[in-house]
Design goal:
The protein has one domain. The chain is built from 2 helices and no strands. With about 45 residues, it is mostly helical.
């Protein structure tokens, strides 16, 4: 694998990871809004 190939693979992997994190964060915030905070605190304890 050449250096250019490696950097391209790395960049596409990073962007995929970033979009995955964004989707995860948005789903988490949506859950937080739909769930009452006191119930969530009970689960975390």
């Amino acid at each position: 694998m050449t250096n250019d190939e490696f950097s391209n693979t790395y960049r596409s992997l990073l962007s995929a990871l970033g979009s995955l994190l964004l989707a995860l964060r948005s789903s988490l915030t949506a859950k937080r809004i739909s769930n009452p905070p006191d119930r969530r605190a009970g689960i975390e304890r």
